Amino acid sequence: MKKIQGALAIGFISLFTAITLCPLSSLKAQSSQKDEKNDHKKMEWWQHDRFGMFIHWGLYSEAAGYWDGKPVNGAGEWLMTDGHIPRNQYAQLAKTFDPVDFNAEQWVKIAKEAGMKYIVITTKHHDGFCMFNTKATKYNVVDGTPWHTDPMKLLSEACKKQGIKFCTYYSIMDWHSPYQQADDTNAEHPTYNPTTMINNQKYLAYMKDQLQEIITQYHTHLLWFDGGWMKGWTAADAHEIYNYITGLDPKLIVNNRLEHGVGDYGTPEQKIPVRGLPGPWETCMTLNDTWGYKRGDDNWKSDTTLITNLIHCASGGGNFLLNVGPTGKGIIPQPEVDRLMAMGKWLKVNGDAIYGSDRTPFNEALPYGYATQKQGKVFLEITKWPSDGQIIVPLKNKIRRAYLLADKRSHLKTKSTPDGLEVHLPADAPDPIASVVVLEINGPVQPE
Ligand code: JFZ
Question: Which of 28, 122, 261, 333 could disulfide-link to 169, CB 3.0 to 4.6 Å?
């Protein structure tokens, strides 16, 4: 939140509280027993997969945080409002949008090598420019740019080929829409956020047309809504859209940013709830300080932070959606690729502790790291390797076998003590960032 526009941040605090407190509530309350089972079932792949790639890509990527040669404060994708750019001037960016280096197969391969299992990409961000093939407006990548290409088609096909789930982001707030009014309509110096709905009916019809296109053209597995804090977006609107899209595809997963308690999972942003959230949830996060590409934003998170964040999410029963911001030419910046490859390398050895795992069985935080579990197994992701060669695990079970995930033939000595289970570790950690100990147990897990 640190870098989010000051005034916004305050508004978001209450938004965030609402998100944390009622991830599923009103929707669940309305659905029948059978629906709840289906809801649970449709969430299975997503909860198993744990790690996804967020992609923010649009006209703002080409501007790269600059307007008229001057840097604009704020996140890259907020350029239009933070730079107070009139609609027709911002739209000029489309005339030169020509990502000659875009390679769908390559992007998906990067996600795959990072150990990510799904991709969520911006089909339309707050700026209203459509990065997909749509008949609902000419303000789109196929009709409105010299590129004349539909990246969503290419990406969804590449995802299918490489076994990655293709998912889409769609902003409700739309700074280009004739059915929404900017907060400050000053012709020379407009501020868009938050817009106000001036024609719900027409905007809903537009939204439905586009969502139907996204669902039928690309078979999106999930819809990640955003911008529902705009004024005049009602609970009735949220329910109408949820029912409409799940009517088109009952397996569709929907995040909770339709607001008003509608949606299938919670979306804490840039932070990981210390003990997770009760229902399904996903933390989304940037690699630097922006979602959309911004030249010169080099405040990169370290490999240690990123790997630890992924583990932290999994141990709280949540997913981690990590963002990349490709350039206007279509390149995922090298510092982003480097970090993703480090995560992929770690997951290659330790993925069994993350994919398909459940949240920690323990009620307390562990001083040396995190825990996840599966049937008959407790995983300890040790981020602080002990100097005295042992850890105490708050576990009562008898241990069948204890070993390092990095060396499945290793045997670790364990001993039940009044303080808990003592596990003896080798002097050197197999991994400098996080090493996983596997405890195979009999019967249900019994925390101290
Ligand atoms: C939104 C967008 O405004 C932003 O551009 C980006 O797409 C991000 C993923 O989502 O920003 C938010 C949304 C919600 C909160 C904060 C920023 N929140 O709940 O704290």
Answer: 122
pLDDT tens across 129-165, in order? 999 999 999 999 999 999 999 999 999 999 999 999 9
pLDDT tens digit string along 246-267?
A: 999 999 999 999 999 999 999 9
List, chain by chain if needed, residues with CB within 6 Å of any ligand 1 atom: 4, 12, 15-16, 19, 75, 77-78, 226, 269, 284, 291
pTM of the model: 0.93
Show the tokens assigned to 323.
Answer: 């963002």
Domain co-membership, 347 together with 375: no
Q: Is the dihedral of CA 86, 89, 94, 96 positive or negative?
A: negative
Give the CA distances from residue 425 to residues 24, 304, 346, 350, 414, in Å, rounded to whole numbers and listed in that order. Answer: 42, 21, 19, 17, 9
pLDDT of residue 18 exceeding 80, the answer is no
Enter the tokens of residue 18: 């609402």
Is residue 58 included in any domain, yes or no? Answer: yes
The CA distance from 88 to 73, in Å, is 21
Same domain assignment for residues 325 and 383: no
Phi then psi dihedrals of residue 385, to 5 deg: -65, 125
Q: Could you give phi then psi for residue 410, rounded to 5 degrees?
A: -70, 155
State whether residue 116 is helix, strand or coil: coil
The count of domains in the chain is 2
